[in-house]
Design goal:
Blueprint: H1 5-38, H2 45-50, E1 57-67, E2 73-85, E3 90-94, E4 97-100, E5 109-112, E6 115-119, E7 124-137, E8 141-153, E9 158-168, E10 172-182, E11 187-198
């Protein structure tokens, strides 16, 4: 049975609308693909590694060494991550660990903390948060020093803080506010409010 002309025209018109709709969707998809290819691919890996402070440079698992005029090791600082800010002449450090050598061949100082700020121009390392220093004293033997902040001055060869400190050795626990330690002499001076508790041996 032959369809009337008006029904045939309506059927063809519906098919052409559907066909043009499919063609439009395909063209729109192609246009979106072309536009996406024009956008640069953003690699966030470098940004993530550089960190939010945008340092001039950074090093992961870094080691900094300083030597005296005769080429002997004066200090060694290791850190999980160091970020250098050249204009400000500072290096921020994550989990720094320092070893300070005594000039006379005595036992070195070992110091570590959660964060650190190193100023290469003056050879100073400022440590903060859970600072622990260990050294050998002729009077007390091995001494552990605890504080929340401490400065290591490699030019003056001193370890210093104005914060509360706790010294623990084999026979006593001493609390004080402020301390100066001389690296080469292996001596410590407590500044204020010194209180000690001695153990019976």
């Amino acid at each position: 049975m032959r369809l009337p002309d008006w029904m045939l025209l309506a059927w063809l018109r519906d098919r052409s609308i559907a066909l043009w709709g499919i063609v439009g969707v395909v063209l729109l998809g192609l246009a979106l693909l072309v536009l996406q290819e024009d956008d640069p691919i953003r690699d966030t890996t470098a940004t993530d590694l550089r960190g939010p402070q945008k340092p001039d440079g950074f090093v992961v698992n870094a080691t900094f060494r300083a030597f005296d005029s005769e080429g002997r090791l004066k200090s060694r600082i290791r850190t999980r991550r160091a970020e250098q800010f050249q204009d400000e002449n500072r290096v921020t450090m994550e989990r720094p660990r320092a070893m300070l050598m005594a000039r006379n061949g005595g036992a070195p100082w070992f110091v570590r903390s959660r964060t650190g700020l190193y100023r290469p121009d003056v050879a100073k390392l400022m440590l903060e948060k859970d600072v622990r220093a260990r050294h050998s004293s002729t009077e007390r033997g091995d001494v552990l020093i605890l504080s929340e902040r401490m400065t290591l001055d490699n030019n003056e060869r001193i370890v210093q803080t104005d914060a509360p400190v706790t010294l623990i050795d084999r026979s006593s626990v001493t609390h004080a506010v402020g301390m100066t330690g001389w690296i080469d002499e292996r001596a410590v001076r407590l500044e204020n409010d010194v209180r000690s508790r001695y153990f019976n041996r």
